[in-house]
Design a protein that fits this description.
Blueprint (H helix, E strand, L loop, with lengths): L3 H28 L4 H20 L2 H13 L1 H17 L2
Helix pairs in contact: 2-3, 2-4, 3-4
């Protein structure tokens, strides 16, 4: 049976949990905030440039753009590694 007293206990527990969650999220968002939307477009554009300059093909540029947009943290090291290896061979 639900009573007013049990509802008050549950309400206080939820209020404490919400306050702690807000404090943690607020502290984390104050420390580091990255707007991933513009970051993905920027990495996609850089990856498209890399894909075009590497193969002189618009199709590869489009493929690299989508790879950079979808996986920005993976595409950057792969593109840099390919660039470094291509310069090492010359």
């Amino acid at each position: 049976m639900v009573t007013d007293r049990s509802m008050a206990v549950v309400s206080r527990a939820h209020a404490r949990h919400d306050a702690v969650s807000t404090a943690i999220v607020g502290a984390a968002s104050d420390v580091v905030y990255v707007d991933w939307e513009w970051w993905r477009y920027l990495v996609g554009a850089g990856a498209a440039y890399h894909g075009y300059m590497r193969s002189k093909s618009v199709l590869w540029a489009v493929g690299w753009y989508f790879a950079g947009f979808a996986f920005p943290l993976i595409t950057i090291p792969v593109a840099v590694a390919q660039y470094m290896l291509s310069k090492k061979g010359k």
